Known about the structure:
Blueprint: E1 11-22, E2 25-37, E3 42-46, H1 53-60, E4 68-73, E5 76-77, H2 83-93, E6 94-97, H3 109-115, H4 124-137, H5 153-165, E7 171-175, H6 183-198, E8 202-207, H7 210-216, E9 222-227, E10 230-236
Parallel strand pairs: 3-8, 3-9, 6-7, 7-8
Antiparallel strand pairs: 1-2, 1-4, 4-5, 9-10
Helix pairs in contact: 3-5, 4-5
Amino acid sequence: MVLELSGEYLIKLENITKEFSGKRGRVKALENINLEIKRGEFVVIVGPSGAGKTTLLNIMAGMDRPTKGRVIFAGRDYSDLDEEELAKLRREKFGFIFQFFNLIDSLTAFENVVMAALPTDLPIREINARADELLAEMKLLAKKHRFPKELSAGEQQRVAIARALINQPEVLFCDEPTAQLDETIAEKILNDLIAINNAGTTVIFATASETIANKLRRYATKMVRLEFGKIRNIETLRSV
Length: 240
């Protein structure tokens, strides 16, 4: 395993290119991406639909591999990790919040949160206590036994946030997490994510909405503008 000499950056992308096969041949979803993220940052990746935001998140999170380039997390080069090791890294270090809540309809809110921690070595009593704590933080403890269809869209997204935090991730990846919500509920979810970042979790937030990006400017550390698979601009807003 290759170790990064400097421990300054939690995530480092070096010359990342991702190609897919299309009807007209090879298509570059990402091209020559270089990005460095420190522990505790709140990074906003903004760009239109099709810019490559989801592909970039997937590569950073080890859910997809680049065609070229290196991804380094906490000194670990992903190219040195097999699929089992990458899965372990995702399970133990990363949390994910998506545009679509991806809750299991047949499970209660509590069970959806608990399920994410079952593959770990944590005792079930500790998992249950942690799930209750997170649902309380999301103001959903009174609804822990309700099924997703019995919850509002905002409540479902808060269950998804609790699920993402159950394993106490170092990095929280957010892919358009407010896109399906009305403005008032979206504002509450943004405040939840800001609080999570203030508590020490690194947050990487992708959005196509300039309005959302502008709302996050005062809290973000970096604003990364992505267009046609390329980084057009990286604006440093504050340091950590």
